[in-house]
């Protein structure tokens, strides 16, 4: 068996992202899922683009603030302590709107862990 404790503040933030992203997957030694911690200031979005995943399910747990998730049908407001789940094939764009008062912090989990799975969505 293997156990690890990861202090997300010690994981370096990924460069060239629209908001702060700390990739926790490798630090935790995870192979079957992706785990990321995001901090988005007002006006910042979490993904690089409005997108969907072919295979991966995603879950966003809001640690602080309010996360807004745009979908083709509506924009969801996800409050602190709540979870937003996305099934494969469903487009979404998570963000913190420009008129927000505070940053939003989110723990994002995706499974299975796949790379190159995201497809851009143009509404």
TrEMBL record:
**SUPFAM superfamilies under this entry?**
RmlC-like cupins
Q: Where is the signal peptide?
A: none
Q: Where in the numbering of this chain does the Cupin type-2 domain appear?
A: 38-109
Any idea which UniProt keywords this protein has? Answer: Metal-binding
Gene Ontology molecular-function annotations: metal ion binding
This protein's record includes keyword Metal-binding: yes
Which InterPro entries does the UniProt record give?
Cupin_2, GPI/OXD, RmlC-like_jellyroll, RmlC_Cupin_sf
* TM ranges: none
Q: What is this protein called in UniProt?
A: Cupin
């Amino acid at each position: 068996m293997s156990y690890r404790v990861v202090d997300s503040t010690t994981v370096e933030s990924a460069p060239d992202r629209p908001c702060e992203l700390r990739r926790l997957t490798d630090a935790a030694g995870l192979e079957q899922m992706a785990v990321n911690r995001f901090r988005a200031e007002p006006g910042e979005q979490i993904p690089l683009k409005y997108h969907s995943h072919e295979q991966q399910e995603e879950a966003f747990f809001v640690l602080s603030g309010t996360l807004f998730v745009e979908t083709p049908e509506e924009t969801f407001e996800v409050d602190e302590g709540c979870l937003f789940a996305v099934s494969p094939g469903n487009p979404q764009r998570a963000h913190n709107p420009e008129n927000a008062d505070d940053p939003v912090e989110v723990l994002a989990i995706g499974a299975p862990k796949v790379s190159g799975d995201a497809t851009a969505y143009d509404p």
